[in-house]
Amino acid sequence: MTWPQALRLGDGLTDLWDAKQNAWILHWDYIQTLRDPLDLFQAPILYPARYALAFSENLYGEALFGFPLLASGMPIVANYNVVFLLGMAFSAWSAWLLARDITGDPAASLIAGLIYAFVPWRFSQLPHINMQWGGFLCLLLMFLLRYLDFGRRRDLMLFGACFVWNILATLHFGLFSGFLVGVTLVFDWISGAPHRAQRILAAASTVAAATLLCAPFLVPYKIVETRYGMRRGMDEMRAYSGRLADFLSAGYRNRLYGVLTRRWSRAEADFFPGALPVVLAAAAVVGLRRRRPRPEARHEPPSPARRGVAHALDALILLAVAASAYGLLRGGPGEARGHPSRFVVIATVLILVRLSVAFPDSSRFRDLRDCLQRQRLDRRAILMLCVGVAGIVVALGAHTPYYRVLYFDMGSVFHSIRVPARAIVLFHIALSVLAAWGLSLLVRRLAPGRRAVWVGAALALLVVEYRAFPLGLSEYDPRLRPVDAWLRSDGGAGAVLELPLGFPYDCEWMLRQAVHGKPILNGHQSYLPPAYEDLIRAARRDPIAPAAWDLMSGLGAESLVFHGDVGEPEERARYGRLIREGIADGRIRAVRSFGDGDASTFVFRLVGGREAGSVGRPRGH
Question: Is the same domain home to 261 and 351?
């Protein structure tokens, strides 16, 4: 499915920007773990900013798998590609395990692994290695369900371990695992036997302990939010929230549907899961319902006390709905504060509580617990449907009142999440399991030989639907640049600024930093320090403002590397003028040059620059 990436481990990348950033982070996690693990987040990029690793995902969970490779001498880019492919394989394996556990059918569950790891959305996420490491979500759900069913302490410990590792792998999936676990525990509490309450409490306590264990990897993000004001605004979060129309887009990489669905394609939002998985999931729902008799009508009416509580809740629901309608009609500042959304959420919660107390008199079920326990559909299938719905709701982000309330009321937790649309991974978990279940039901009565043929045919058809290979790989030159070798050996280089700066050039300079080891002012992260953003803005003017020199000095730059062959002709000319003016004004002095003519790389020392000072500090300090 990822052909020919395995043949180009050392010199091929599916993306030339975020992939370089991710490759550098994987290498930095390894180097700093061996050298000074307590200062893991003090990365030598975006100098002199503190906690620079917390300006983006730390990727520590997946980086651990690359430690043996880097220790054996594997190059940085090759390590990135191996860890990337390992993440996809791990996701497929874990989804197969989960589906096998639920359906009891190892053969049919193969399709769950294929769906989960290679759904078109995954290929739209090729630049993001952390989005390929979704395996821990499946494993933590599997061990949680095992513990709730059998109460084995081993499963509880494995659930906690997977929960921790999932947070370390990616903050997005770490947050989404809270929704996954929350839906599972609430569902089990409502639909399960009373004796399971103790297990639910133990699982919730394990989540709290696991989150506390991850504190050293979470606290730096709170620090940079406070120190640098780094948080996601409502407009950015809304832009990366999913829409229902996104389920019509398979992404441009998909060979079958890509062209047909191009008009609906958006960044981070290619949600179309393919036709076959949806058909198989529907077959599971229909087939599982047919296997159980229709529930009989209830025989015991609710008690007077329950009926009284239900009527009181009805009144509260009407008040919440009225308040929500009034807020929506009024609009303006109320919506900005999220008040109408809050009343919608309150009404939803009250409705669930009301149904938990008693169903309407005309229903054949006493309450929500009775309804779930006597459904014709298997409890685990209902749970998967709930997980899928939860994934869609969270993925829709700002386009639903529920996520808006979380954003306004839960503070830094949801302010740090850039792309709610990535919660669609929860829908993929549910779809994978249900599709495997549907396939199992369709072939269960066939002879073993014919069964294997039909399972193989389903897998082959899905490969046709999901085909994105051969992947378009970008050429990467892993050879050591002379300037990097010189910087590595030069003890007086100090902090380095490489020109041209800003995106996309900083992706390359960041990756090359792993070679020469000097702190750099450049960096490609989700957030950038305000002082570096000021420098980028100054460098994009034509001509570049002389104040850029003060910004460089204020950030503590000691060496300047100008790559004369990088960038558009207009950019090279603009930087060339800046360099000539800097030499004429005595701002810099030449140290070394590498190459000939326009392909030359020049190294300069800044002259008379003050120590990193107020310009490099966070605003407000």
Answer: no
543-577: burial string, b at 16+ Cβ within 10 Å, e else = ebeeebbbbbbbbbbbbbbbbbebbeeebbebbee
Pull the structure tokens for residue 144: 């949680």
Read off the pLDDT of residues 116-147 as tens digits, 9 standing for 90 and up: 999 999 999 999 999 999 999 999 999 999 99
Asked if residue 490 has pLDDT above 50, the reply is yes
Please indicate, yes or no, if residue 171 is contained in any of the structural domains: yes
Distance CA 524, CA 505 (A): 9
**Which tokens sit at 551?**
């910004």
Same domain for 322 and 266: no
Which residue, among 106, 168, 180, 175, has the nearest Cα to 143 in the 3D structure?
A: 180
Residue 321's domain comprises 304-373
Average pLDDT on 385-403 reads 95
The pLDDT of residue 335: 46
User: 62 in a domain, yes or no?
Assistant: no
Number of C-beta neighbours around residue 533 at 10 A: 12
Digit-coded pLDDT (tens) for 578-598 = 999 999 999 999 999 998 665
Do both 340 and 457 map to the same domain? no
Q: Are 109 and 40 in contact (CB under 8 A)?
A: no
Examine the domain organization and report whether 164 and 85 are in the same domain: yes
Residue 611 clears pLDDT 60, i.e. is over it? no
Q: Is residue 457 part of a domain?
A: yes
209 and 267 share a domain?
A: yes
Given 433, 466, 499, which residue is the final one in a domain?
466
| Residues 424 and 446 both lie in one domain | yes
Query: In this structure, is residue 179 part of a structural domain?
Result: yes
> 365 and 382: one domain?
no
Q: What are 307-328's pLDDT values in tens digits?
A: 899 889 989 989 888 887 777 6
Nearest to 175 by CA among 396, 388, 349, 406: 406
Per residue in 76-105, pLDDT tens? 999 999 999 999 999 999 999 999 999 999
Q: Which long-range contacts (CB under 8 A, 24 or more apart) does 484-490 make?
A: 484/512, 484/515, 484/516, 485/516, 486/592, 486/594, 486/603, 487/516, 487/517, 487/518, 487/559, 487/561, 487/603, 488/515, 488/516, 488/517, 488/518
Q: What is the domain count for the chain? A: 3
Can you give the pTM of this predicted structure?
Answer: 0.93
| Same-domain status, 194 and 280 | yes
At 295, is the pLDDT very low, low, confident or very high (cuts 50, 70, 90)?
low
